[in-house]
């Protein structure tokens, strides 16, 4: 027995068909515009080649004070050592007078007085030179401390294959952002 097919008719709504076609056209156009804007834009980053910190030396002067022991010589009252000379001469003369007799005694007295005067002078001079006292004084001097401060960074980069250099206030890392016009964005966001 033969099988009989019945024919079926499919009715398509015209507005549904038009909407589907317009939707497909819109999606295709939107994708094309988006792809065009991404392809046409150019690089979004400049590649950093080298970063060199820029340093400034800061000098800070300050005073350093220390207490120092200072030895002073007392003021001399008898600058020419007259007292020592006189006492030495009298003592030497008395000693010289004890030796010998007659003219020898006179000669020994004079020699004792001269020798005693010289010795007395030197003894008093030595005593005056050793008559010292010590005080503590504060002595100050200015010293300069130095330190270095990073004030910026000299950055070498390439953008679209072209080398460039810029000074920045921070280390940018490996890339520097670029705006839509192809200029570097140097401020930190």
TrEMBL record:
Organism of origin: Pseudomonas knackmussii (strain DSM 6978 / CCUG 54928 / LMG 23759 / B13)
Pfam families referenced in this protein's UniProt entry, alphabetically: Rick_17kDa_Anti
UniProt main location, coarse: membrane
One GO CC term on file: outer membrane
Domain Glycine zipper 2TM span(s) in chain numbering: 83-124
This protein's name: Glycine zipper 2TM domain-containing protein
Key word Transmembrane present: yes
The entry's keywords: Membrane, Transmembrane, Transmembrane helix
Localization of this protein: Membrane
InterPro entries membership: Bact_OM_lipoprot/Surf_antigen, Gly_zipper_2TM_dom
Bilayer-crossing regions: 16-39
């Amino acid at each position: 027995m033969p099988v009989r097919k019945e024919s079926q008719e499919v009715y398509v709504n015209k507005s549904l068909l038009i909407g589907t076609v317009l939707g497909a056209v819109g999606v295709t156009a939107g994708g094309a515009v988006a792809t065009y804007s991404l392809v046409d834009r150019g690089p979004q980053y400049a590649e950093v080649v080298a970063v060199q910190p820029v340093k400034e030396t800061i000098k800070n002067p300050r005073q350093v004070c220390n207490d120092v022991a200072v030895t002073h010589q007392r003021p001399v009252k008898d600058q020419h050592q007259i007292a020592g000379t006189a006492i030495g001469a009298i003592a030497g003369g008395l000693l010289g007078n004890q030796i010998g007799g007659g003219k020898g005694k006179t000669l020994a007295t004079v020699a004792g007085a001269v020798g005693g005067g010289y010795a007395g002078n030197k003894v008093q001079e030595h005593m005056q030179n050793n008559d010292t006292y010590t005080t503590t004084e504060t002595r100050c001097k200015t010293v300069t401390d130095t330190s270095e401060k990073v004030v910026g960074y000299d950055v070498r980069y390439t953008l679209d294959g072209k080398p460039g250099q810029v000074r920045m206030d921070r280390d940018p890392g490996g890339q520097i952002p670029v705006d839509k016009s192809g200029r570097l964005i140097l401020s930190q966001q």
